[in-house]
């Protein structure tokens, strides 16, 4: 009887978790598709305002498939990347303090869309060792509620999973906040001690391919709430 009960419990969990995760993934995919449309429209809108400027100043939209899209803004590239997996918030996360999750723990399962900031030259010159930085990440749950975790300087980002529902306006707000943050996140000179020694092979490669590691905060440890 215990074996039968255990088997029944396992099968029930498989069914419930499978349905839940498929729903979360479906919602995340739909939000990501909407996000791509928001990005494309935003690029067209901004370029209309910049039509008298040089092409290098204008924004560029690049669709890289089902789970990734990029926009170039001046010397920056923002990469929006959707995970194929579904995650649950750890028990120390602030979402567990809300009745919305306490009373319905399944609401803590979320898909993730990451926003990374790279230098556009890193892609232009194929500098594969250059660094990108996680600017923010968007969590979407089974009810299409969302929160955004990111740098403190981004400001005004949603952190109440029970209140915020993703739509075109909220996604545009996230995108423009990420753009504004990235444009003001300036490139710093790498520490002298990090670049004072270079092997012959390294300098030959640098001369041939211009592959010296570059990033806005080379040697800086990323923290989720500050720069």
List the helices and strands and how they pair.
Blueprint: H1 2-49, E1 60-63, E2 68-73, E3 76-82, E4 87-88, H2 99-102, E5 109-119, H3 120-124, E6 133-140, E7 146-150, H4 168-183, H5 192-195, H6 200-209
Antiparallel strand pairs: 1-2, 2-3, 3-5, 4-5, 5-6, 6-7
Helix pairs in contact: 1-4
Label the structural class: alpha+beta
Q: What sequence of helices (H) and strands (E) makes up the elements?
A: HEEEEHEHEEHHH
How confident overall, as mean pLDDT?
83
Outline type: globular
Low-confidence stretches: 218-227
Helix content: 25-40%
* Count of runs of 4 or more consecutive helical residues: 6
Biggest beta sheet summary? 7 strands, antiparallel
How would you describe the overall organization of this protein?
The termini are far apart. This protein has one domain (5-188). Strands 1, 2, 3, 4, 5, 6 and 7 form a seven-stranded antiparallel β-sheet that branches. It has 227 residues and is α+β, with helices and mostly antiparallel strands. The chain has helices at residues 2-49, 99-102, 120-124, 168-183, 192-195, 200-209; strands spanning 60-63, 68-73, 76-82, 87-88, 109-119, 133-140, 146-150. A hairpin with a 2-residue loop joins strand 2 and strand 3 (76-82).
């Amino acid at each position: 009887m215990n074996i039968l009960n255990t088997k029944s419990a396992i099968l029930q969990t498989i069914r419930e978790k499978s349905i839940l995760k498929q729903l979360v993934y479906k919602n995340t995919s739909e939000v990501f598709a909407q996000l791509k449309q928001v990005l494309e429209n935003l690029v067209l809108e901004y370029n209309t305002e910049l039509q008298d400027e040089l092409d290098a100043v204008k924004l560029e939209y690049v669709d890289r498939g089902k789970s990734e899209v990029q926009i170039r803004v001046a010397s920056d590239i923002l990469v929006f990347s959707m995970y194929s997996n579904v995650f649950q918030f750890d028990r120390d996360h602030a979402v567990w303090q809300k009745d919305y999750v306490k009373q319905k723990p399944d609401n803590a399962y979320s898909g993730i869309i990451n926003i990374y900031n790279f230098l556009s030259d890193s892609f232009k010159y194929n500098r594969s060792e250059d660094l990108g930085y996680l600017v923010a990440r968007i969590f979407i749950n089974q009810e299409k509620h969302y929160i955004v975790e990111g740098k403190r300087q981004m400001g005004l980002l949603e952190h109440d999973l029970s209140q915020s529902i993703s739509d075109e306006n909220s996604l545009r707000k996230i995108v423009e906040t990420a753009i504004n943050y990235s444009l003001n996140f300036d490139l710093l000179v790498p520490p002298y001690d990090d670049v004072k020694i270079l092997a012959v092979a390294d300098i030959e490669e640098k001369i041939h391919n211009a592959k010296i590691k570059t990033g806005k905060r080379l040697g800086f440890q990323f923290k989720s709430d500050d720069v």
